[in-house]
Design a protein that fits this description.
Distance between the termini: 50 Å
Low-confidence stretches: none
Mean pLDDT: 85
Radius of gyration: 18 Å
Shape: globular
Helix content: 55-70%
Largest sheet: 2 strands, parallel
Strand order of the largest sheet: 1-2
Order of helices and strands: HHHHHEHEHH
Length: 137
């Protein structure tokens, strides 16, 4: 986003939302669901400007290191439920991160992409509810 105005134009495009959500997995996102995410881009330039500011100020290497260090110190029971069809963050990377957490369970959700809660809330619930019940006892 270093070319002047290109970042401004790209982050103001409501179709960017569609492409991101639909590119996150092997499924078609309903238009009504997409509209929920599109709406902020259609009603104000604030959402796009905020996105651009995040992208311009993202210190990815430092952020990843902070997360990695934090996970290694995390002691609370943790569930990592991951979609096997996530095109951006592979299962192997998620498993490797989960293995650094002392008290962690890892669940693979078949045919689920990056936005599991959108496409397969039932699969998320199947992983989450038993975990929460075990934590409550």
């Amino acid at each position: 986003m270093a070319i002047p105005l290109v970042g401004d134009m790209m982050t103001q495009d409501p179709l960017l939302v569609d492409r991101l959500l639909e590119g996150g997995g092997p499924y078609q996102v309903d238009d009504a669901d997409l509209d929920v995410y599109r709406r902020p881009f259609l009603t104000s330039s604030g959402a796009g400007r905020a996105l651009l500011a995040v992208l311009q100020n993202l210190r990815l290497e430092q952020t990843v290191q902070e997360i990695t260090d934090g996970l290694a110190r995390w002691e609370k029971p943790t569930l990592v439920a991951w979609g096997t069809s996530d095109p951006w963050l592979p299962v192997a990377a998620a498993k490797a991160a989960a293995q650094t957490i002392a008290n962690c369970e890892f669940v693979e959700m078949d045919e689920t992409g990056h936005y599991a809660q959108e496409d397969w809330p039932e699969k998320v619930s199947e992983a989450l509810i038993p975990f929460l019940r075990r934590m409550a006892t």
